[in-house]
Specification:
Keywords: ANK repeat, Membrane, Signal, Transmembrane, Transmembrane helix. The structure is a single chain. Among the domains are: 320-544, Serine Threonine Protein Phosphatase 5, Tetratricopeptide repeat, CATH 1.25.40.20; 560-584 and 593-709, no CATH class. It contains 35 helices and no strands. The protein has helices at residues 3-14, 30-43, 48-51, 60-75, 82-85, 91-102, 124-131, 135-144, 160-166, 170-178, 182-185, 195-201, 205-214, 228-234, 238-257, 261-284, 288-297, 312-318, 329-338, 356-361, 375-395, 402-418, 421-430, 445-451, 455-463, 468-472, 482-487, 501-518, 522-525, 534-541, 543-577, 602-627, 633-669, 673-683, 686-709.
Length: 722
Amino acid sequence: MTPLLIFIYSYFSLYMISTEDVPMLTGDNYKSWKKNMEEYLSEKGLWHHISEPQPEEAEYGWVEQDLKVLMKIEETCDRKIHPYIKSLSPAKVIWDQLAVMYGKMDDFGPRWKGKVSTCYTWCLPFFNAIATGEWSKVEEFVNKNRGTLTARITVNGETPLHIAAKFGKESIVKELLLRMDEESVKKRALNEATALHFAVIQEQLQIAKVLVNKVEALVLMKFENMTAVALAAKCRHKDLVAYLCPITLKEEDKFKGLAKPKDYECVSAEIDQNRATLLTSLINVNFFDEALDIFNRFPNLVLTEDIHGKTAVHSLARNTSAFRRSSWFFQRRIYSCLNLKFFCNGRGRNQDEENLNQACEEMEAPTTCLKKINPEDLQYPNALRLLDKICVEISVIDINDAQSKALMTSTIFSAIRIGNVVFVTEMLRYCPQFAYLFDDNDLGIIHQAIIHRRKKIFNLIDSMDLPRQKMVRYRSSEKENILHITAKRAPIDRLNQKHSPAKELQNELRWFKLIGNTVPPTLQDSVNNKGQTPAMLFMEEHKELWNDAKQWLKDTANSGMVVAALVASVMLSTALSLPSLSGTGKADTGEIHIKFTNHNHFYNVVIATMISLFFASASLLSFLSVYISHQTGDDFLHHLPRMLSMGLLFLYISVSAMIATFITTIFMVFRNGIVKVMLPPALLAIIPVLAFAALSQFPVFKDMLFSSYGLNRFTKRRKGYF
């Protein structure tokens, strides 16, 4: 009989038994409920399931009867009690749980009275005593109700040991372990977590040590299908990883050695999956010293899938932060001068931030000048070493195997999509044949680099001395070639929201032009099923971006013209008033004209005024050129960015000269001690201009300047990769 039929039979058999004489258990009526339930089970000949322990080898009939008793007890319990007995079996375990909860509460003194039961725990004073670490209260409760030592205390199925581990109460954990056997220590909560998992999640290293010393088998028990050490890696708890890793590996080897011959293959596969999960977890959190140690011992894990179906090589391909050094340029130069030894931790050895002084002691040169070493820089060489070893293992794999080929295609393409240049470079260095990998849509690595706008990866592939005809071959069902792929708009994740629409359009135009220069000219005139050439498809795909770029350029040029015109007007007025500053006094009429021509700063005012006026006029003309432009593709590539950057630069110079004119005039008009009073307010005039330039216009100016005059990153060929 199948398990489903057994359940259906038992369920309907339950309703053949009368339930009229057994009241609903609410907690307060436990004694009457217990009496009626005992009489009921005795009458049905089922009481021995409660009064006697479960047989070591229970027969089918006994299991069926126990299921009836279990369901009968659950049926007569109030809904608020169900979380405390959920998933418990056999029936005697549920009976004991209820006895602990309601059987002896009347025996406790006044200190346990008051609000005892809540929606979270059936005994709030006991829970609080554990959570706050008051062992005297916990001990009193345990001595009067021995069953509470291993009973469920909360609706989440947590025992006192779970609660103490979760709240980091090491003293409570030690006292409880002295009174518990191994099976009680290995009990799980409703979410399948053990006390060790709670300690790992809360980063309680000492509690984890106490638990493992009591029961080493805890390290093999899984929570969310992960062992404790893999969970520690996922939570970025490096100390716990260093402690649990050697113990876990030892226990796994022991468990594998005890497996029966018929189960050995299954057990070995499960252990390999556990270790693959640990390895991928370490890679995902950049613990490369531990990951390198694991991989050195078990190189067969390179293509072993973890619980999520991912491999170590796939995790490394997706981890772009592993190969990104965060230190400043000069700090890295200091590291190289010091000849810093980046070493791999041994098993159980910790090299976290707290122990960086120990790391410094292993350098070949004194490092007293270094106040801080970035831990990510310590991991960077280990990441490269791990990648190197993985590439060595991958290089001997038969690429013609369908499963291996599909896995490596997915991995390489994933690395290209996220821009992991170092990973792709190393893979192609060890395995040049990967350059000819294609997916189900007949797209190769060069097509992926084009689609996702990965310039460095494209330059890498372009610099390889490999036949290009096979790499660039592509003909979709819509008769589109590689240029049609390039003409399509970049994926949404590759659109840089920090850049202006004009900058985005310029990048797209340059990218399309670059690819067009590297493919046969015949592809530029070929049409797809819709009769579109690549250029026509580009215009259609980028129509919205084109309109946005045009509008943005007009708005920017219009704003610049307004400011430039205002500055030019002010400075023209100032220039026309300069002759009056050199007038002479007339004593007979009583008129006094101050003569500034002999003042030291007078000619500075004249020069600053001329500079401001001339550059304001030049800025106005530059913005006007942008505003009236036809805004064609070639204009977006060169003319418009150049004129806009020139207009912004001239405007900045003009405004700066205007402020200089104002400050110099203050110096010239006010003399001696008055200058000291007027200087601070005069200097404050610089702040609005600097704030406007830095926060609003400088990013635009920088984008336009580098796009017009900076190094051409698109067409720079990178030789010497191999």
